[in-house]
Design a protein that fits this description.
This protein is an all-beta fold and 85 residues long. Helix content is 0%, strand content 53%. InterPro entries: Subtilisin-like_FN3.
Length: 85
C-alpha cells in the first residue's frame, strides 16, 4: 500500500530493480491519487529461479511521482529455500 504525501492529486509510476534470477510483475504499474493521504494498493508477482549456490538476491521497487518531487522505495529480498531431496 502506498500513501500520497503530496498536497493534492498525484500519479506515481513503478520502477523495479529486479533481484538477479527473478522476474517481477507490478500491478498496476501506475497509481493515481485524487487527494493527500489517499491510499492505493498494488501487488508484486515474483518468480525466482535459484542458482546452485543458494545466494540471497536483493532489489527494490521505487514509486516515482510524475513531477519528480516524491520517491518511495521498498526493498525486495529473495532468500532461496531448501527443498526436500
Amino acid at each position: 500500500t502506498l500513501t500520497n504525501v503530496g498536497s493534492g492529486g498525484a500519479t506515481y509510476r513503478a520502477e523495479v530493480e529486479r533481484p538477479k534470477g527473478s522476474t517481477i510483475v507490478v500491478s498496476p504499474e501506475r497509481l493515481v491519487f485524487g487527494s493527500k493521504h489517499e491510499k492505493r494498493s498494488y501487488s508484486l508477482t515474483i518468480r525466482y529461479r535459484s542458482n546452485s549456490e543458494f545466494v540471497i538476491a536483493d532489489g527494490s521497487i521505487t514509486w516515482i511521482e510524475e513531477n519528480g518531487k516524491h520517491r518511495v522505495r521498498s526493498p525486495i529480498v529473495i532468500s532461496p529455500g531448501v527443498g526436500d531431496d
